[in-house]
Amino acid sequence: MKIVIAPDSFKESLTAEEACRAIEEGFKKIFSQATYAKVPMADGGEGTMEALVSARGGHIYEAETLDPLGKPIKAVYAILGDGQTAVIEMAKTSGLALVPREERNPLITTTYGTGQLIKAALDKGATNFLVTIGGSATNDGGVGMVQALGGHFYDKEGKELAFGGGELGKLVKIDLSRLDNRLSKVTITAACDVDNPLTGPRGASRTFGPQKGATPEGVELLDANLKHLAGIIKSQLGKDIEEAPGAGAAGGIGGGLMAFANAKLERGVNIVAKAANLEETIKNANLVITAEGGMDFQTRFGKTPYGVAQVAKKYNLPVIALVGTIGKEAETLYEHGFDAIFSIVPGAVSLEEALKDGFKNLANCSENVARLIKATGGLKID
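^ that's the sequence the OP posted. Answer follows.
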């Protein structure tokens, strides 16, 4: 009998591949004769590049970039097996995990490094781009990214804007005359896991700003600044992005990619599922296990476990989710394809301990779930 294991990564703890191994290790202790199909997944956030390279082959390259605080680092991007498709995972150079907690501040963080990765892939001859835009430390509407690609953003004195979402309110003029002309000859798809608009109650700043280090006052300033940016884009470029679904992804870089690179946005989990041939793998299975660091009511808006569950339910398969934290209104997910949700955390532990022991906790929880299945006779797997 066949068990499909299709998890996302556990941020700052486990990659999707490591999560696959942990779940398999736990289940095999109870169901040693089952067949296991491991499908590392992602939804446009961290780990998407690796998931796509695992599914389609290719090479990972290194480039000199700037991190969210403008410090030089080495970051990676991929050219897939077709030799033409570049995968730019913004978290590799503009990600929240790159900034120490005490230094997180979206008023000053930049997406400049993401633009540098795009330029590096252009130099490799890529003509089709997939830019995955989850896990960012930024709230600059993609302005830093465009600056790295030759665009300019001026204040009323004709000075270039400094880095960060806190600067956007000063914007008076957008100059794209020196933007890398190769961008007009390529196709860009932005993979994201949310449909938030650029501004407002569900916008980039109010929804995601606090987790990136923004104070309540900072959140209001960032939201106003993105609204100002959207107004300048509309008046000078003729593009209305403020209410576009997904424009608020990753601090507004979703909207920036639409406005400055004519990108289209797609659900990251759908892109990865197609590349990984998930449906073909699932359709003759008996059980599907998915996993992620945390799940709540927002999971159904495009997160990896939801995408996996929707494929599994096409074939009426049971779906079990293993997560670090079970959040607000997670019980609503039982109406959206999930049969059971288990937290892998064994007790009252610190966040640091939970992250450090992620593999062990996931393997132990997987074993316990397998024992429950066997004890109740819920599945005839052996």
